[in-house]
Structure formats: C-alpha cells, structure tokens
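Complex record, two chains
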Amino acid sequence: MFIQKGPSPSSYKPYDFALQKRVESLASAPPPVLISAMWPSYVSSPDGSRLVCGPDMSPTNDVLLNSTRRRTGFTSPTTREATYSSWAENSPQGTSWSDRVNGSLQEKIDPAELPSKAALVEEEIAFYPPNKWDDRGVDLALYWSPRLTRALATLIGVQCILLVLFRLAAVVLFVGSNASIFWAVAYILASLVSAACLSSIYLRDYIAYPVEISSRFDAFLALFTLPALAGWAKFTVGCSLISWMFAAQLDSYQGLVLFSQSGKYLNEENLYVVMSGAWVGTLLFFQRHFKFTSQRIRFPVIQRMKFLELQAKARPTLKKSVQSAFCPLVFFTMGYHFVFGDIKHLIVALSVFLSSSTLEIERCWYELFNLRRFLVVYLCTILTVFSVRLAKIIVRMFLLSPREFGIELFDRYQKELCLSEALNETRLPLVRALAFKYLMTVSSSSDIKAKSFRRKIFCLNPTGDVPNEWNAVRNDCLCIIRQFSSSLDNFQGLGQGKGLRHNDIIGALPSQLAYRMTRMRFQRDRLTKQRKAMGIVERMQFEIREFIQRMPWLLYIFGQQEEHAFDFAIQNCQNAMYAARSLAHLIAKSVKEDQYGVVLQDLEQIVPILLSLKDKLYALRKVNPRCHDYSINVQRSLVLIYLAFPDTHMAQFL
Amino acid sequence: MCSLARFPDILDESGVTVCQIDGNVQYANPEFLNLRTYTDAVTDHPTINLPRDGLVHPKIASTAGTLLLPEESSLLERIEDAWFEAGIGRILELLDEESTVLKYPARYLRLLMKSVQLAIKYTVAPRYEEYNSLAHTERERSPVVCISWHPHSLMIAVAIRDDTVVIYSRNSNFTPFLKSKAQRRITAISWRPGSLSELAVACSAGVYLWDIDRQNLTSRPAISTNARLLRGCYVTSVSWSPEGDYLVMANNSNYMTVWCPDEMRKVDLKNSGGGISQVSWSPDGSKIIACSNSHVVRIWNTSNWMSDLWKTSGGQATFPVWSADGSVVLFATRNDPCLCRFNFSTDPQNSGVQAVADLAFTKFGDDYQVGGDVTGMTWDPSNQYLAIIFANSPLVAVFYTKTSPMFSGLTFSIKPGFFIKGAPNELPTSIAFEINFKQGANLTICWSSGRLQYFPIVSNLSKSRHSSSNLSGYRANSTGMSPF
C-alpha cells in the first residue's frame, strides 16, 4: 500500500549527490516525455507502523524537474503533454492534486532556451532546498537543556525557601540548631545534588520513550537494568539529602558525627533521619517503577503563569504529602527498631574513625516511643515527599511550556526544526508532544498570529501546484492516527468478554481479576471447537496454559497482561488525539481561510480514518472509560468537520 | 437611560402575545392559540408536552401525624440516637436541654460551634442560605427549572421540577428522560458545543455529563451513559467553552472549576468574594465572567488565566449574557435593579462598566407590574433582542439592542421594545433564545402553568436580511421591527 508520506531524515542520502547526479543526467540525456512524479512516496511496513522509502523514490524527484522545466523552459523540442504531479499523486483517486486542480498543461518547448548547468542547479535548490528531508543536524538538546536548567534553578530556589521557612519556624519554637553560618554551603550543595538527582529522574519522561512492560514479572526483572538501578540510587540519595537538610535545622540533628573531648561518635538521631529519607526514596522509586502504564507526558489543562501554577499546586501537594508520608514512616519506624536496629553497630564497626562505644548508639527498642523523634522524622519525611512531588511538577511545568515552530518546509536558513520535522521527530518525545500541542493551538485559535500561520499551511508552493505545507501536516497527523488506530486492532478482543460474569467466578477476587477470569472463560468457550482439532503436543501445551490461567494470583504476577499494553497505548495517545482535533480544526477553518481549496480535496481521505478510529475506541469503551472519552473527542472532531461541510453525508455515521 | 417606564402599553389586555411580525406584536385569544395562522417559522419545531408528573406540586407532609407515638427512652439512648441521626450538634443540644451536670459545658461548646459555623458560612460563602432558599423557592414555584437549546440542531432540553431532563427534537417522537438518583435540585443545563448529544446538568450533587445515544431508542438512558463531575458540590452554574473543550463550573465555594471532560481532569481557580452564582464563557472564548454571591464580579482572561476584579454598586450581579463577538457583556444587579454593560473596548472612554437601563419596579395600568428582581435574561445570537423576566411579574420585557463596530471597539445602544404576556395567572419562569433560528429570533418562554411557548420575531424581509448579515459578520437593522 502506498501512503503519502514525507520521508524521514534517516531514509535519505544527502541530497546534494542525488541532485548533482540528476542534473548531470538532465544535461546529457534527452528529457523525459511524460513525467509521473513519485516523490516522495513511501511504502508502509506490514504492521503499518513504519514507512519505508521505495527504490525509485529518491529525492531526485520528478516534480522538481517538472517545476524546473516549467520555469526554465527546459524540455523536449516538441510540444508534449506534461503532467505536473506531486506527492499527492498516490491518492485513492489515482490522480494528482495538480491534475485535479489544473488539469494537464500544454507547454511549448524551445531547445534554444536551455539553461546552463550551474543555473539549473541554483534554480533547483532555490525551489526545493533539501532542508526538511535530510538530517540537518539540529541539536535536539536545545529543546530540553535550557528548560531543564531553569527547572533546576527553580527547584533549588524553592528548596532554599522551604529551608529558610523551616529554620525560622525552628528558631521561633526554640528547637533550632546553633550551627555555624558556614553550614549554609553544605545545605546549598545538598540542595543542588538532590535537585539534580530528582530532575534527572523526571527528565527521562520527556527525552526517552517509556519501555513497554507487559507483566509485573517483567517489571521486576527490569529493576535490575542499569537505568533502573541508577534511578533507584538517585531517588535514595536525593531523598536522604533532603531529609538531612531539613533535619539539620533542628537541635542535635546537625551531622552524622558528633565531636566530643573523648572522640568522634555516630549521631544516631541523624542516621535515623537520613535512613528514613532513603526509605522514602526507595518507596517512591518502586511506586514509579511499577506504575508502568501511567501517562508520562501530560500537558496541563490550562496554561497559566508558572508562579501561579506552582502556587496552585503547592497546597494540594502538601496535603497529599502529609497523608502519604505517615504509613511508610510507621513501617520504617517498626523496621528500624526491631529488624534493622543493628545497622548503627555495623556502621561503627566498619568505620575507622568513629569510636566504638558511645552513649548515642546504646539506644534500644524503647526509642520507638520517643514522640519527639517520631515527629521530627515525620516532618522531614513530609518535606521530602513534598520536595519530590514539587520536583516533578516543576520539571513538567518548564519542559512542557509552549514552544513555537516554523511552518516553512524549505527554508534553507532555518536553524531549528520546522513543524513537520518536529511532528515526525522520533528520537525525542518531548519535541513531538510540543509540536502537536502547538499545532493544536494554532489550528483552533482565532487570533491574528494563528490565522497567518494557517494561511501559510493552506498556501501553495512557489510553482503554484502543490500545497506542500498542508500535505506535510496532513500526512504527519494521519500517520500518527493510523498508528494509534492499528494498535487498537490488537485489543479488540478485550472488549468482547466485558459485561459477562459467570457465577462460578470467586466473588472475593478483585474486580479486575474477576473480569479477567470471566473474559478468559469466554475466550476458552470459543476455543472449544478448535481444541478438538488439535494434535497431542499442541493440546498439551494448550492445557498447561489453561492450567496456569486457572490461578489468577500466579497470572497476576507472571501473566502477559494485555490490559497493561492496552492501558499503555491509551494513556500515551495524547498526540493522536491532538492530531485528530487539529485536523478537524484546520478543515473547519479552511472554509473561510483556504482560498485554493487544498483541504477539500483530502476530506474523503481524512474522514474515513477518523470514523474508523472513533468506532474502534467506542468498541473498547467498556475496557477503559477513557476510550469512551476519546471516542467522544474524535466524534466531536467529526462533528466539527460536518458542521463546516454539511453536505459530506457524514450525519448517518455520527 | 432606557427604562421600563418607556415601554409601549399593552394593546390587548385580554389576549396572549404570540409573535412579532414586521414589528407588530400579534395577540390571540388564550383559548384559541394557533401560531400557524400568523407565521410558519416554527412549524417544524418540536411540540413540547411536559410529563404530568412534573406539573404536579409535590405535597410533602411536615409532620408524621398521629401514626407514630413518642416513646420514653433514657438520656443515653437518646444521645445514641442523636449521634446517628444528627451528629455532635444534636447531642450538645440534648445535653443542654436535659442534662444537669454537662449543661453549661455543652451550651458553651454549642455556642462555639455555631459561631465557627456562622463565621465559615458568611466569610467563605456569603449568602449561601439566601441562595439556597431562593433556588429552592424558585424550584418549588415553577414546573420548568431551566431550558437549553442545542447549538447545532433543532433540539431543546427542558429541566423540570421533578429533577428530570427531557429532550425534545424535531421530527422525532423519541424523547429521552435523563434521570438519576443523585440528580437533585437542577440549577442549570447546557449543551456541549461541537457535539451532537452531550448535555451537562448542574445540580446539588455535582454535574452530570450525559451522552445521549440517539440511535438507542431507550427513553430512559442508562446511568452508564453519564459521567459525574465535581461530585458532592452544589453547582450553581455551568458554561462550555465555545469549542466545547472545557466546562467551567461555579459552586458555593471560593473556587471556580475548569474541567477538561476528554481527559477527565480539572483545575480550580480561586475567586475571592464568596461563592459564585453564575458563570459564563464568552463566545470568542477569550474571557469568562464569574458573578459571585456578593457584589464582586471577576473577568477571567483565558489566554493567561488572570482575572480582573470589579465591584458593583448595585448589589449582586446576575445573569450575565455576552454579545456574539464577546466584546460586550450585560448583567443585571439585584439590590438596585438596573441593566449594566461591560465593554471590552480598547478605547478607555468606552471601556468599563456602565448602567444602560433602569429596571426599577414599574406599574402598567392596574393589572400589570414589571421590574425589580431579575430572574432571567437572554440575548439573541444576532444581538438585536434582549429579553428579561422579573420576579412576580407576568410580563417578559424585550429590549431592542444594537452593537455596531467602531474603530476602537463597539458601540452599544438599547431601546425599549415590547412586552410579552401569557394567559391569565401565568408567570414566565424561564426564557431562552433559539441559537440557530434562520428566520429571525425565536424566544422560548416557559410559563408557570407548564406551557412552553415559542415566540418568533420575524419579518417578511427576514430571510434576505439575516442571510446577508451572516456574511457581513453582524446583522443589519430591520426596517419594520427595530427602531434603530
């Protein structure tokens, strides 16, 4: 199947060679009679997820020759019919866009007007500079590193403000430490390190694609990979430092080592706080690691000023931190005093400079009832959890702040990615998300800037035959919608057993497991006929599988859970939804703004894809409620198109 | 300044106003109401017959009568009952009344609790009780609570007194009833723009977002076809963004909530000045007006989500209505009844709040009184007619309005129009203009008798006039209908 698609940067050789070669062949060989453009046409991979450049689909495009010839008059000495076609040629109608608009052109060709080779090269480059289609070496770090720096600075600033407030409160309540002012350097360093650790953890959501994990056992195995271990270490170190930083503002919690005339001793109070920080960090890491279907990149509902956003989020975050810090701390306190209490002895034994026996480490299990100690650790844990959550909010706030992209596909002097390139950027998810968000904004907005942007999308290329920008945007949007739609095909079986409930399913099971068991039984009934036709080995394998499936808790850990893959696909489909909505807005706006009618030609291609997506989402509405919301979203996009073009006979499908 | 006293007299006091054609208000005998004899403009509109249950006043007995006799029980048992029935407040009351030992501690504790409750009530949500009692009284009085026209198709949603929303549509006998156990005390309904079948219903238990499947001919859509937002909040008003992407909700707290129903996520925006009574999104999507229960009005700018605070001198602002281009918003004030205009002009002389019409109480003859407390206001999409209804007034006042573009903004002018009156003993309870009425303007009026009336305002020139106005962006003046 041929799909209209712009090539990916990695698919092409450097354009200069191809262009040069083509120009040479132009100069030597007689010009072709009928040129049918195939550029840039692509073949989709069998699963539809990847687009591959065909052998004859090099960027030495015939459109380029056509347009050049038309401008320069370089063609056959006789009058010939030349079809000016474009990359929109592979449309279902089988006719090119220019054919539909302009029809065939008759050109008078004069061999005396042959241009020079250099002029031809210059002309071609002027028309189709290859900036979009080759790897232009744009530094993608520019899209996240300045934002991360600002986020880091903000995070350190927020931590310092919290620290100062905490210190003031401690001084007012006469529990503040009387340490030297030089300790401030240590606090700032600790804040810097912890902020760097936490922000680098959350940065991964934006610069790396999440790994698809299908079962909890896989997630367990993934714990032992290098990135996971590094993340664990970062969480632990970051949270320990934050805990220490806050605890050090209180009396007798200054440092891990106590100095006295008789020697150096381990400050067990401080060790207790630092270990609680490490424990909280570990818990937060595990929570994040095993929540592998959650949405990583999520734009805020409304775009506010960063200070207001932070101010609005701070209070509910603090409330959640107060609630969520209590239970882990109770477990930690019990564990520390009854199980891991000897760790202080171990530290002293292994240390070469700490005195072996001190009063500080002689504390026993009855310290469990030390209320002051518990309150201090609880307060530090709250502030630690609060700081971690704030780090996530701040990183998201800065990295997802809106960014503008240029629409010009062939601007030679463009240093940054144009919109189409950004929409296709597969290396950095952040850039792609920002691009779709920007497209969504400019397609729906009614201000002058957005209108001028849309005017550029709807305009034709300099030769006046191809709406390059619209084609690029349309293809980019349709590509991601198709990908999402085809991924939903794999999950259509999930919706079949929903709503059925057999009486023999154990009522005590969680509803998720009960539904899962019900669906499996439903599927097994369907396989009864096939089972009879199976061979012995095949039948044995099947029975073993069935045996495992009868044990839901085992399946809970080891089963390849289809729901997880489905949830993962649904949670990360925001770009596809933006694409559908943007297309609908562009089509609706084209009624007044598209003076060449370029959008109208593609309606019959876009609408069936959106309808298909809506139906697939609707079929899965019982599996995940968000499917229902998304199907309504797509339906609203279709309604928008229908209201703009009421004569498209869509009403019966809506 | 325009006032109700300048309105023309009612020509036929015994008749019922049925429509306005070419600037002439048409009257008919209340016993033989047939709109078709005057105009065919609304013949294809759905015929609305409210279910009988909604028209009957609920009779709630205040006492259980003599069926149940009191039983003597010990103080401890009564404390136990009070704890399960009414909580700590009732226990303290009981101790204050009957205990000798704990009398004074219970009394002082009760006083302390009451003062804290009052402080919270009148600082966080002032006039909460007043709003609740007003809403409750209104609801008890009229069979129709509110109505809403669909923005894209000929479909109207009617919320009736028994907490049911009924959908009437053209050429269809299928009338879905939207009812849910927790959908009590409906305050507002609003269709989602850009959608064919989604309706937001604000009530005392939050907001129900119904998705009506028109292919499913079940008259009572299942509870699974709705989503419940802002659970547990007494939502007083809802308004959709023009594209239908966001739903803004007002409640009696200090926060206004912006929902994104596609992602089921929300953001709270803080409003000082007490609970919010009404909220409305401008048609261009750039602003939101939030009228609080006090004299504070906030205008939110949706580009940066910052707000401007305004204080009205005439008391609480009610029923904000926007012009089609979002440059003018009108609202009524409660204590000193007048119609105010908020103009968002670049010209500083034109911008700001101005009183444009006096809505003070006025008498017409011996039978008719109009003015005072505004209970409903609507502006037609072409910004030519503004209809207002008042508490305890049998008349609907229709003003002629005009917004014309100027170099630095808009000029707004308002003139007295005409009165619409119903049958004897009928009071208007809800009004709304149809959104996509091509022939002119169609005012839909709900009367206290349960009758829903279409009041078309059309002319022979209306077709050409309105079709040309759509192209030019604003509507031209009528030669026969409007004095402008």
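Note: Helices of chain B lie at 52-55, 75-85, 88-98, 103-124, 128-141, 462-472.
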